[in-house]
Amino acid sequence: MLTRVLRRGAVGTEFVVWTRGAENRFMKMKITVVLLLLAASVCAADEKKKEEPPKPAQSIAELQTQLEKILKDTKTPGVSVAIVRRDGPEWIAGLGKSDVAGDKPVTPETLFRIGSTSKAFASLSILKLVNEGKLSLTDPVRKWIPEVWFENQWEATDPVLVVDLLEHTTGWDDMDLREYAKQAPDSMGLREALDYDHHTRISRWRPGTRMAYCNSGPAVAAHIVEKITGQRFEDYVQQNFFDPIGMKTATYFEPKSGLTNLYHKDGKTPYPYWHILYRPAGSINASAKDMAPYVQFYLNRGMVNGVQVMPSASIDRMESPTRTWAAQQGVKPGYGLSNYWSAEGGFIYHGHDGGVDGGLTDLAYMPEYGVGLFFSINSANGDAFEKIGKAIRGYITHDVKKPELPVVANLPANAAAYEGWYQLDSPRNAMFEFLDVAGITKLRAQDGKVFLSSIGERNGVFVPIEGTQFRELPKKASDVASPMVELVLLKANQEGEFIQTGSGTTTMKKIPAWEAMAKLGGMAWFVLAVVGTLVYAPFWMLGGLSKKRRRPAERAIRVWPLLAVLSLAVTIGAFLVSVDDLVARLGNVTGYSLAVMLSTVIFAVACVAGLSSLLRASKSEVRRGVRIFSTVVVFDLLLGAVYLGYWGVIGIRTWR
């Protein structure tokens, strides 16, 4: 539930923004990557060599061998798999172990947590009511559930609509760690869950303009379903979708038997069962046998065994984003109604992925080719997830011709007007918005192409294909070109100039060059101050062992900056050691969350104390070089503290 910093469809410590390509992104990074950007001030990370992917399997037997090897190599206990054609399943299987300690195998009947893949049933339910004339996607949310709290300063002119809940265009912040950490009993209803904590449901920008993944939106939509039908949402889905589609054992609740354990990356330590607060956003347990007919349901455009469970037009609508600025300009790729576009290996897929603590899932299909897939692993191992996905996709496309790449067009006449600096303007999580400075990007147009450069990537190359739409060229000769739109130059409006990157989910706003330089320069100076303090500290500390070299007057202006840097290291360390249990450790009052709060406070206090010591130090007792160095370091760290304080990081209570 919680999207590759963050997986688009994740629900839990997928407090992550897993993304495809440049995606939904948030940005293409897990939260560990976000934290390592901070940790770069303390240590440098070596770049891992990428393994050459195996050749695509030519048969199911060969694919099974590949998957079993991946499980073994990555210490992933098990995987549930379904490969489906339009006329029926080709392969339904369970590989590996569902219970490592008990030596129980995964079977096609083993239930896995599918995370945010669950969200589509909220959209299907809303669409069914739309087809029955009971509501409209363009109805204001307040028309149906005025009792559910949210705040939108533009409500009079641009209300939050039902469609915004499902296309993630409400402008709301994603759930906070406190909401993720809540263990909701099966008896807790949706209204009670939505009342548990609502402060993230505040529109940060005008609804229907930008997309930012938000887990509470589908839950609010599900409550609308309950209000109209008078049924509990889970019962409505069981009656109208699980049963007609043939998902015989799928359930939103903890099953009494048949459920796999979910494991940490070590493949041995299990997670406890997570009773998700907003069940419609990511709580479904389902087997490969359940998911195979569900994939087929999409391939046959809503038809099951000759019965039209949902009109074909409803499936088309799910795959079509409408609300973002780019969608309003006619851009097709993006996030529709709980269904998004993605490009893999030169092919375009529709579907949704998902993640919970210890589980990762993907559901993807290509209606044009009549084939789709589902797989779910019972481990929090992202490497295994990527490799398994590539292996399965390699098999289902090994004998299929790739779609033709869109023809390169002329650069738009106004492309030069978009040159300049851009910053993320649609952050998913406000908590990590202070890190957006690391994603500042420069755009330039040259030789019929557009180039994007940032700290993480230099000169990503995009070529025009239609109007202001661009596709990205491969970074290496061995990479497969993507046929999908990856960059859109958006029409200027009263809010400024914007571009959209990734698969229709990341909006960036143009900022003045001086602002970009100030932010990037400030970040660079801050990192240098941190590194300089750490490098310098051993020398003066060792020098202090000799009575002849002790300089008491210089001690305070050295010690306070060092204490500030060490407290920052504690903050980063607390996050890093919490990654595998992020929700449990930081979403509650624990030693980890208290360490984060207290260390950020100590950082700020040490920065202020450092300045005070510097101002009080006698010029005659402090060497000139030491004073200059300390002045630069103290002011850099103090500016960093002011910046973090502005974003609410100082004294942050992650459990609130």
Structure commentary:
The chain has 656 residues and is an alpha+beta fold. Among the domains are: 415-513; 520-646. Helices cover 36% and strands 15% of the residues. Strands 12-13-14-15-16-17-18-19 form an 8-stranded antiparallel barrel. Strands 3-2-1-11-10-9-8 form a 7-stranded antiparallel β-sheet, with helices on both faces. Helix 15 (513-543) crosses helix 16 (552-578). The longest helix is centred in the last third of the chain and has 31 residues, at 513-543. It is globular. Mean pLDDT is 90; it is low at 1-49.
Amount of beta strand = 15-25%
Stretches where pLDDT is under 50 for at least 5 consecutive residues are 1-49
- Say how many strands there are: 19
Residue-averaged pLDDT: 90
Largest sheet: 8 strands, antiparallel, barrel
Strands in their spatial order, largest beta sheet: 12-13-14-15-16-17-18-19
Backbone structural class: alpha+beta
In angstroms, what is the radius of gyration?
26 Å
Q: What percent of residues adopt helix (DSSP H or I)?
A: 25-40%
